[in-house]
Design goal:
6-stranded parallel β-sheet; 14 helices; 39% helix; 4-stranded parallel β-sheet; Gll3707 protein; 381 residues; Rossmann fold; alpha/beta; Polysacch_pyruvyl_Trfase
Length: 381
């Protein structure tokens, strides 16, 4: 049995990151190989998800003051994310925090992806995700994302990343912009593939679900980590229109942004298992999140993805997804219209199923060819 190492953002206390890590692990197992998640997490990532963030700016000091009264709740959330990792990930025996510690000795293939591991502007960015430390194993990129950050625009040394990317045996990306940016940087044509979460079925996620907290009655599940003021006001108007409560996620931001003033209820604790349950059982999901959108479709929910910020520019993560699934009508601006039916059913009919199955087959074929069978797509430079 081939041994596959996966390097991704599995250690982010973020439901999308953890669930894409789980999905990448599981789909490789389903295709007949042994999958191990390399337990790598740099200092930037550990600081990012710690209870208190570094006091290196006035803004961060204020955030720490605001979170202090709720520190035990945040600590409990973090412990729940850790429990999810322990229960569901096949991790390396050793943890790593620097690229110098990494080795490919135990693997036939190392897979980079998915998630925003190639976004070089974020706090947990690291060259390790570009696999320069892999010397013998095959290097494969499965559906990584640049976020909305073109290396040619944001890097002071794009040639470094060009060299990294040209050394991959097989390349793919998650978004259309990523495909264009790799072509511009490396002159390579690459496939745009599905996020691995879409390669599993609802029944695969049902095994993970936490039903210990079940809100009474109908509710809107609101997942918008930034809690933008105008978006919160938009959601409040929808909730008032349909006389339905709102369950909100993202504990720290909830307190930073004083979200309680809108009357939204905060979840009592956080874990990907509860996140799945709340999406599955919601009357409506309203989100700005890529993975919030994905899991709404997996559970065939009525949902709204709120168009905002970077979605009007280079951030095409959600746009690529909804375009591929023929669901562009679910991406709407936060301009409330009283005569608009925000509860209207999503069409999960034949067109949707055919589009999803076609994309799944393409993505699984890539996994079979480049990871399981280890065929060479490119010659390394």
């Amino acid at each position: 049995m081939k041994k596959i190492g996966i390097i991704t953002f599995h250690n982010s206390y973020n439901c999308g990151s953890m669930l894409e890590s789980f999905a990448m692990q599981e789909i490789i197992k389903k295709r007949g190989a042994k999958a191990t998640i390399i337990d790598f997490s740099n200092i930037g990532q550990r600081n990012l998800y710690d209870v208190f963030i570094p006091n290196n700016s006035l803004k961060n000091v204020i955030k720490n003051i605001l979170v202090y009264p709720h520190r035990n709740r945040v600590k409990n959330n973090n412990s729940m994310y850790e429990k999810f990792k322990k229960d569901n990930f096949n991790l390396t025996n050793k943890s790593f925090s620097t690229m110098d510690e990494l080795t490919d000795d135990d693997y036939d293939v190392v897979v980079a992806g998915s998630d925003q591991i190639w976004n070089i502007t974020i706090d947990d960015s690291d060259d390790a995700y570009f696999l320069p430390w892999v010397k013998q194993a095959k290097k494969v990129a499965y559906s990584p994302s640049f976020g909305s950050k073109n290396i040619l625009k944001y890097s002071e040394n794009p040639d470094k990343y060009k060299k990294f990317l040209l050394d991959f045996d097989s390349l793919s990306v998650r978004e259309n912009n990523g495909k264009k940016w790799i072509k511009d940087l490396c002159d390579r044509d690459v496939d745009v593939l599905l996020d691995p979460t879409l390669l599993l079925e609802a029944k695969d996620y049902d095994k993970l679900i936490d039903n210990n907290y079940t809100p009474e009655g109908d509710y809107i599940f609101f997942y918008c980590p930034s809690f933008d003021k105008k978006i919160c006001e938009f959601v409040k108007k929808i909730a008032d229109k349909y006389k339905i409560k709102v369950i909100a996620w993202s504990t720290k931001s909830y307190y930073f942004k004083f979200v309680s003033k809108y009357g939204f209820e905060l979840v009592p604790y956080e874990t990907p298992a509860l996140y799945l349950s709340l999406i599955k059982n919601a009357k409506l999901v309203i989100t700005t999140s890529f993975h919030g959108t994905i899991f709404s479709t997996i559970y065939r929910k009525n949902f709204i993805t709120v168009k905002n910020g970077g979605m009007y520019g280079d951030d095409d993560r959600v746009r690529t997804l909804l375009d591929e699934l023929n669901m562009n009508d679910r991406l709407i601006p936060f301009d409330f219209k009283d005569d608009y039916d925000y509860m209207k059913d999503v069409n999960y009919g034949k067109e949707y199923s055919n589009s999803l199955n076609e994309l799944k087959n393409k993505s699984i074929d890539y996994i079979d060819k480049n990871i399981i069978k280890m065929e060479d797509t490119y010659e390394r430079n």
